[in-house]
Design brief:
With 486 residues, the protein is mainly beta. It is built from 2 helices and 31 strands. Strands 23, 24, 25, 26, 27, 28, 29, 30 and 31 form a 9-stranded antiparallel beta sheet that branches. Strands 4-3-2-1-20 form a 5-stranded mixed beta sheet. Strands 13, 14, 15, 16 and 17 form a 5-stranded antiparallel beta sheet that branches. The radius of gyration is 22 Å and the shape is globular. The model has no long low-confidence stretch (mean pLDDT 97).
């Protein structure tokens, strides 16, 4: 099945239309991509795997795609890593993680199987010595139905996240029980023989199932993330049907539980899911995520472009004052070229001859002393645009794609399909925005990374207009650089 998938990719990838394919974001050569899996630093390179259906641009039978990078910006595709070719994973090799032990790279993933109306999800192991070719452990599943804790659901028992501490391996698995969502914790001395340890974290009124759990220690605390299905909407936060949240706390390794604070949204935009946290090169805390969302219009598939899905620009993360701080991975700045700077006082609408583009980094410093609102319109052409708007009186930053060239519809329960808003108060009336555009994606870092908003936005195929709008006077300094990595 792997050989057939790789042959299909080689034969068909030249037919992909790349008009909306990012130049410095990882996307599939062909077909469908969703959750990042197995993000790991191994033998001097970052490895990224993902949920992959290579035979169509829509969701289907899941394989694991695979790419490597030395710097998290420029990626090289490798052969498909896993195929659903065993009885226990016949209906999909679903999400999981990776860990290095004794110079060998191990993948831990959910085997998905549906038979006679019954769904069974188990945790399985594959390994590689060269980081390219993987062998499934002959004793899979390593965690099957016989090791399911009381009250958990074998139908929703997925997305293992593995780490090592003090010579012991730990695994989080997302699951549900009646009236609650939770993650459970297992432990092992060898990655093969696992025992249930405890219910790690459990809450009511916090979504249906906590998919893609993840955990790292950083800045003296433990940082937990997960992707709750159907998380309750807030005033502005959690507007998407499925959310991605984090909590800060401390793990008690003596009893296998975590004491954690309030859940906060990781990203305030429309397109962010399945975050995975790792310790990368030199112990840096790094995060990736799927730059899309379930239940939406997938524009490249609708247009017949032959691909769907991409991952965020990886982020370096830290915790300050109990809150998550996110910054673009620093290697991206080596790819920023052709710097242009302008400054002045803006009132009304204005564009600048040398500030335009579809693959750019913008740094905007705006003194809002005399303004009611300030906005940046991107991918602007043919009367269409995406808008990044700051309302000074409300203290709200909005990313609005309702006026884009290609519309994105959403499930009726999904309130984040057209626009997302988040509260943000800049220090000293100075709004600082760092914005990364990549043909069909927008990532906005506000302040020092206290707020990040990520959304897809499909302008006209060559729409490179960038327009600045101020209601009242705003003193602005604008830096524009092209991001050249492809």
């Amino acid at each position: 099945m792997i050989k057939a998938a790789c042959a299909h990719i080689a034969a068909e990838r030249s037919k992909v239309n790349a008009r909306y394919k990012g130049g410095y974001h990882l996307s599939p050569e062909l077909g469908w991509m969703n959750d990042p899996n197995g993000f790991v630093y191994f033998n001097g390179r970052y490895h990224m795997f993902w949920q992959y259906h290579p035979f169509a641009a829509n969701n289907g039978l899941m394989y694991w795609g695979h790419a490597v990078s030395e710097d998290l910006v420029r990626w090289k595709h490798l052969p498909v890593a896993l195929a659903p070719d065993r009885d226990y994973d016949a209906d999909g090799c679903w999400s999981g993680s990776a860990v290095v032990r004794g110079g060998r790279l191990y993948l831990v993933y959910t085997g998905h199987r549906e038979r006679d109306g019954r769904r069974v999800q188990t945790q399985n192991l594959a390994y590689s010595d060269d980081g390219v070719n993987f062998v499934k452990y002959e004793g899979n599943p390593v965690i099957g139905e016989d090791k399911l804790p009381r009250g958990a659901s074998i139908a929703d028992f997925r997305d293992p996240y593995v780490w090592e501490r003090g010579g012991v391996y730990y695994m989080l698995v997302g699951t549900v029980e009646e009236g609650a969502a939770k993650v459970v914790l297992y432990r092992s001395g060898n990655l093969i023989d696992w025992e249930f340890f405890n219910t790690f974290l459990r809450r009511t009124g916090a979504g249906f199932c906590w998919e893609c759990p993840s955990l790292i220690d950083t800045d003296g605390v433990d940082l937990f993330a997960c992707s709750p299905v159907d998380y309750p909407h807030g005033k502005r936060a959690f507007a998407n049907l499925n959310s991605n949240v984090y909590a800060v706390g401390k793990v008690d390794y003596s009893n296998g539980t975590m004491t954690a604070g309030e859940f906060y949204e990781i990203d305030g935009g429309s397109d962010f899911y399945a975050a995975q946290l790792i310790k990368g090169k030199d112990g840096a805390a790094v995060m990736t995520g799927w730059m899309n969302m379930w239940g939406r219009t997938y524009v490249p598939a609708e247009l017949g472009d032959g691909w769907t899905g991409s991952l965020i620009l990886p982020r370096e993360v830290s915790v300050r004052g109990g809150k998550l701080i996110q910054r673009p991975v620093r290697a991206v700045y080596a790819y920023c070229k052709n710097r242009v700077e302008v400054d002045g006082v803006l009132s009304g609408e204005k564009s600048y001859e040398k500030i335009r583009g579809r693959q750019v980094r913008l740094v905007i410093t705006a003194d809002l002393g005399g303004a009611k609102s300030f906005a940046v319109h991107v991918f602007s052409a043919c009367g269409a645009r995406a808008k990044i708007i700051y309302d000074k009186a409300a203290g709200v930053l909005t990313l609005d794609r309702s006026e884009c060239f290609h519309k994105i519809s959403a499930d009726p329960r999904d309130l984040g399909g057209e626009r997302r808003s988040a509260e943000f108060i800049p220090q000293g009336n100075i709004l600082r925005l760092e914005i990364f555009l990549d043909r069909s994606s927008i990532e906005v870092f506000a302040g020092e990374g206290e707020l990040v908003m990520t959304s897809l936005a499909y302008g006209a195929p060559d729409a490179d207009g960038i327009v600045f709008v101020s209601e009242g006077e705003t003193a602005v300094k604008i830096i524009k650089e092209d991001v050249v990595a492809d």
